[in-house]
């Protein structure tokens, strides 16, 4: 048993309350912690100092809104060494690379899992190139589209608060702002939950746009390769298969199967615009290929 494991064994219920409280809000005052634990302020301060000394509390940090701070794109990157002799030195070689938030050794098919945060999908691509230049690895990238926060107000708080009914605005519009003056606690909590969901929606939209950009890059490359090989630009068999497949996926997801046709119409229109812009710029637009 390690020293940290031995220390963890002696934590009592008061220590657990302190840890849970500080994990939820690192700026809680000693007076607030004392009230939560039913201890005196001096006794609470002594416990906090012991928890810090033992290394149970390793620090305090601010929780940022990364979209507002200019780094809205988050992703996990799994690393698998191409040369396993290099595996032990990978974390050290990536330690000072900008954009990498954490590097964890994991079990499974990969050896390490990076958490990264950057300003755009272009910067994510640049970061991947930097990683490949620094260490011999294969990578698998998963973009995050929703951050699940533990700081959402607890539902139990509603039990001690009164509620009021709000009529909708006369013009049929309600401007929802978490900073607004919502008088009753239940409505305020609903607004906060809407804000959390809207953040997820915004992140999903951003991920969709990024994925569409990558999709058009890939289909353009397929079109150019078809042209080089002398293949016909159209592949109606694949197109019919893809539409049928997307309709089945949409139906399985609880969506109208017609969304597959709407999606096809969108990518056809956008692909034509992209190829026209390339041609107008004097470059070879390749072959117009929608479903590749």
Features:
292 residues, alpha+beta, four-stranded antiparallel β-sheet, 9 helices
Low-confidence stretches are 150-171
Helix and strand composition category: alpha+beta
Query: Biggest β-sheet, characterized?
Result: 4 strands, antiparallel
Q: How confident overall, as mean pLDDT?
A: 78
- Identify the quaternary structure here: single chain
Q: Which outline best applies? A: extended
Strand order of the largest sheet: 2-3-1-4
What is the H-and-E element order?
A: HHHHEHEEHEHHH
The beta-strand count equals 4
**What count of helical segments does DSSP give?**
9
Brief summary of the model shown:
This protein is of the alpha+beta class. It has 9 helices and 4 strands, in the order ααααβαββαβααα.
Account of the protein in words:
It contains nine helices and four strands, in the order ααααβαββαβααα. The protein is α+β, with helices and mostly antiparallel strands and 292 residues long. The protein has a four-stranded antiparallel β-sheet with strand order 2-3-1-4. A hairpin with a 6-residue loop joins strand 2 (100-105) and strand 3. The termini are far apart.
SSE diagram, text form:
Layout: H1 3-9, H2 13-24, H3 30-37, H4 41-53, E1 73-81, H5 90-94, E2 100-105, E3 112-118, H6 121-134, E4 137-143, H7 185-229, H8 236-252, H9 259-280
Antiparallel strand pairs: 1-3, 1-4, 2-3
């Amino acid at each position: 048993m390690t020293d940290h494991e031995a220390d963890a064994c002696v934590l009592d219920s008061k220590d657990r309350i302190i840890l849970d409280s500080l994990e939820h809000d690192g700026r809680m005052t000693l007076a607030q912690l004392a009230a939560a634990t039913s201890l005196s302020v001096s006794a609470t301060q002594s416990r906090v100092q012991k928890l810090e000394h033992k290394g149970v509390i390793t620090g305090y940090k601010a929780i940022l809104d990364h979209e507002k701070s200019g780094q809205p794109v988050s992703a996990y990157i799994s690393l698998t060494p191409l040369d396993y002799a290099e595996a032990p030195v990978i974390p050290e070689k990536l330690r000072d690379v900008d954009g990498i938030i954490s590097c964890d050794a994991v079990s499974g098919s990969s050896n390490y899992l990076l958490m990264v945060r950057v300003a755009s999908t272009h910067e994510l691509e640049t970061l991947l190139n930097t990683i490949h230049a620094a260490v011999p690895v294969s990578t698998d990238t998963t973009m995050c589209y929703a951050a699940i926060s533990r700081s959402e107000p607890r539902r139990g708080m509603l039990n001690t608060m009164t509620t009021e009914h709000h009529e909708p605005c006369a013009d049929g519009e309600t401007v929802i702002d978490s900073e607004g003056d919502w008088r009753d606690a239940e409505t305020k909590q609903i607004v906060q939950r809407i804000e959390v969901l809207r953040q997820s929606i915004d992140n999903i939209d951003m991920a969709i746009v990024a994925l569409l950009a990558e999709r058009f890059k890939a289909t353009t490359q397929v079109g150019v390769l078809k042209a080089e090989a002398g293949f016909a630009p159209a592949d109606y068999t694949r197109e019919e298969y893809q539409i049928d497949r997307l309709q089945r996926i949409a139906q399985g997801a609880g969506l109208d199967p017609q969304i597959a046709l709407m999606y096809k119409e969108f990518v056809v229109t956008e692909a034509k615009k992209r190829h026209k812009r390339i041609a107008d710029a004097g470059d070879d637009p390749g072959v117009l290929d929608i479903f590749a």
